[in-house]
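As promised in the previous annual report, we have extended the structural survey to additional targets. Below is the entry for Peptide zinc metalloprotease protein.
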Amino acid sequence: MNLAEALNAALPEMPVRRVSTGFPKMDPAAVVKANVEDGEPVMVVLNRSTDKMFRFNPTQWRIIELFDGVRNYEEIAALHAERYGVAYGADDLREFAAGLEDAELWYRTPLERSVALRQKLESGRHQHTHRKSKWGDIAHMQFSAWDPDQYFNRIYPYTKWLYSGWFTALTVTLFACLLLLSLANWQQIRLDTVQFYTFTQKSASDLAQFWLIFLFLGFFHESAHGLTCKHYGAEVHGMGFHLVYLTPAFFVDVSEAWVYASRWQRLVTIIAGIWVEMIFCAIATIVWWGTPPGSGAHDFAYKIMLLTGAAVVVVNMNPLIKLDGYYAFSEIIGFSDIKEKSTAYLSGLARGQIFRLPVEMEYVTRRRRPGYVAYALLSGIYSYGLLFTVVRFSYNVCSRYSPQWGFVPAGIIALVMFRGRLRTLMQFAQTVYLDKKDRVRAWWTGTRVAIAALATLVILFAPVLHETVTARFVMEPGERAVVRTTIPGRVVSVMAREGETVTAGSPLIEMENREVRSMRAGAGSEFALTGMKRVEAQLDHSDQGEVIAEHARAGVERTIAEEESERLSPRAPISGVVMNAGLKNLAGSFLDAGTIVAEIGATGQMRARIFVLEYALPRVREESLWICWRMGGSVSCDRE
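The corresponding structure token record, generated without further manual editing, is:
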């Protein structure tokens, strides 16, 4: 602290007095509506001047509505006692009004707002410690916003047909088509979705295209929220871009829906964004299904499908972070702020019951306690899982370019993301230490310290300790076989699918070749004709040598024709699993000789290909190597 700061702390400036000498009153721009939350009546007040929302119980609201800027506190106390039969003192009302003044409920003139802003700046100009970043907390970083109310006012008259009954029926029909086509092609869509969101394999142009489509769809998503809010009579005064646990998302401020709309209307407002994305997905799915593969429309529609499909819907409708699913869940259960309330309850429970610290907790009914604990745990696991996924993703990207130093940028990102939580953890550890230090010092006697030191030495130098190297691996079949066509033909049926187990000798596809078919028919007819001639020669006792030779030659030709016909049905040379994708798409196509039909992998004996990073190779010693692998939920170990 320098001299100027010391003087500022010792001799602070006198606060500027409030300019207005009148009495409090409600802001004329405030919007008020009666509502029911958690089974209790509440008055919801939205102050548009400050963008703050307040909830008051009926008792509080009876007092607030008496403040009109003209009555003094004594008059308000007398009027309240006359109307409701409950008497309050003028000092109590003055204290109540002062609390609402700090909460910025009352109306302020432009001059009063200027004075209040000056006081706020002067009181905080030297407070730099623990200052938030200009982008906010990592859980929610907001970048920009604009007032879209006039935009929605202009487009609503031309789009209100979107809320008609016939259009709702049409969209439900589209969703049914989407469901049927998705189920019919689910295996392909599932694999392509994973590949589509694997950013480490994308080029710069792929990333640019991804974000352009994402921004396009995101604009319509948020516009659907705002337009639905406008449909129910509310105004929309905020729209922009933000990150929720580093997950990119757009936002639109539909706070007035909680004032003007009913619970069902608020729920419709919340799911409107997902509803529009599903419309895009349904139309794109129909275009993808009806256009030839490889065409521009086919590929673009498929990207729209993957960006608006099941994966995005599941993430957006997840109630564990504050996206659409969280607010829909809050409306369904009937009360808001469940994330904050459940987290505070679990934190207080841990502090009081586990660490035995003095703590003040808000009362929670017995019926809600299990739900609070479950939600707080699931939400915390999911939120931290998202953060760890971001760190892991950054490490994978950086290690791709520099395996030795990839951990440095990933570590910096992790430090930036978790610094607030680490600071909170250190403060909590300090609190626990100060509360328990006397008890711990009394427990650590000389004998116990010696035992703990001896146990530590034994653990550190025990020969049972081993060094572990973690690496990814790929399981491959011990034997593979590639099935090719030996003659050309058109595929008339496919009898195997990707991932299906086949036995040796089972047909994979059935082809048709007119030349082979006519050759087989001709060879069969020739063999039958020469057979009849042979019988006639035997009955006539004529020379049979030439007839027998012709019959034998016809038999050879028939055998060759049958073998050619058998080659029209390529068969699996070994028993195993069909490994290649797209086998079912061969139906109706013409295949030349030598075309790969399928790849069969024998799964009776598998081979693991382990990818160990270069820096970890010296730690792998063959003479004492144990390999443990985890597949699904089971872990197995074996000595190499």
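The two ends are 63 Å apart (CA to CA). Residues 441 and 513 are 91 Å apart (CA to CA). These points will be discussed at the next consortium meeting with the crystallography subgroup.
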